[in-house]
Amino acid sequence: MEQVKGSPFLREWLGGPLPSADSIGRISNLIEPDTVREANRALYSQLKRNKAIVAPWHGLMALVVDGHESSASYLRCCEGCLRREIRTTAGTRTQYYHRTVSAMLLAEDLEILLDFEPQRPGEDEVATAIRLLTQVLSAFPRAFDVVLADALYADPRFFSFLVSHGKDVLTVLKENQPGLLQEARTLSDLVEATEISAGPKKIECWDMEGFTPWPEIKKSFRVVRTRERSTITRQLDQKPEEQVSEWFWLTTLKPPQANSKAMVELGHSRWDIENRGFNELVNEWDADHVYRHQPTAILVFLLLCALMFNLFHAFWARNLKPALKEKVTMRHVARTMLEELYAGVVPPLARPP
Ligand SMILES: [Zn+2]
Predict the structure, then answer these.
(1) Distance from Cα 36 to the centre of ligand 1, integer Å
(2) Distance from the alpha carbon of residue 97 to the mean position of ligand 1, in angstroms
(3) Distance from the CA of 149 to the center of ligand 1, in angstroms?
(4) Residue 352 pLDDT level (bands cut at 50, 70, 90)
(5) Prediction pTM value
């Protein structure tokens, strides 16, 4: 930001000079994060009013909840740091790091980051996610129908919290719930598989109901198992190779709300997010870079990043004409915006003699 300090565009747009990078860092730690959350909520409401948020074909709005780690260090720490012991050749060392749980809404062709919440020392990720969801449910009560999460969240606290708030849940089912996984495996051997077509993939699907893994939750669960085959061309010798992957999903969604095909799509969209949503935040927006190592500053930067991510993606998805998007990449559009910031800033490079 220091480099675009002299930008005529920025000066005019802000109505004054840009603060120094140092001031931005110092002030970020003093900002009340809820004020940035409020700005993001206002953006969401405007998009909603403009009918820019549309549900996918199955009609369900999904919210992906996921934890991400940042800024692992042996040297620097703050009062918000989590710590763990790492065994090295030089003995055991304490490593400091931050972990943040994010909530991202999946609309048709548009992902919207609703909120972030840092994991606190002494609590686990599920507890952080429940605090995050309490905030999200209060700020965006009708924004989503179902919460998607990985196997870590196949936890009675998580399901019970969401069921009591009238929301459905879909998580991956893995070895961390061995009894339930075994029961689903055994039962699927007795049930006929159905075939689902999803592009070039061949998917066999076992859709089973009536699981009651946690007596404290008065609701029966559904497990969907899939075996997915796709053919890829091997890079080495260009020969086709069949790849098989197997998935188990645990959900409160009933078949009339989401048929097997919708279940498979919802389940996989959680990985789309991992590949597009958060990867993009890290690789293109430097969202995991710690500009100021203080807990409030870290959260405020993430929330500001969410605001920019949402604005940019809403612009790309809903403002630009499809014909233009066929010709230019998203990165090209970003560079065009950057060009405006840099216009009139960079001193002309000295010409070689
Ligand atoms: Zn820290």
Answers:
(1) 21
(2) 6
(3) 26
(4) low
(5) 0.91
